[in-house]
Amino acid sequence: MLKNRFMKRTNEEKKLLQALGNNIRKAREARGISQEQFAMKAGFSRSYFTEIETGKRNISILNFMKILKGLDASPSDIIDFLKK
Amino acid sequence: MLKNRFMKRTNEEKKLLQALGNNIRKAREARGISQEQFAMKAGFSRSYFTEIETGKRNISILNFMKILKGLDASPSDIIDFLKK
Asked: What is residue B1's predicted lDDT score, i.e. its pLDDT?
């Protein structure tokens, strides 16, 4: 089960992570918070959070919840691209 | 950043994962699909999926999306316990 960040992802998975990162960035910017401020607030390093926003990280659901809490956003705000 | 499944989780994290697993189980049962059927459909092993439903796994966001897709559920259906 061990996976590392260099594991091959399908193109669809890459797109999903990029769409997710984009929505996180948009929600953060709409709230007028810098990456650095938000990373600190949510308990991430700045570099890790940058990788989340650029879609390079397949984050865990607990970290996803931390982000929602930090943004005071609902799940659908961030993964609305899943809607049909 | 390497983490394994035996990593200590806080009580709050355990509760979040249990609530998530519960909602996944309820949504699956409401659709009349067995654990085994659903695991196969979504591309998980049965034992891994059982651990998700019992809140033992901190799944990745990509696996969470696979579950939503498999259940044809919206993100808020499954993590509605985050709402205030």
From this structure: 45
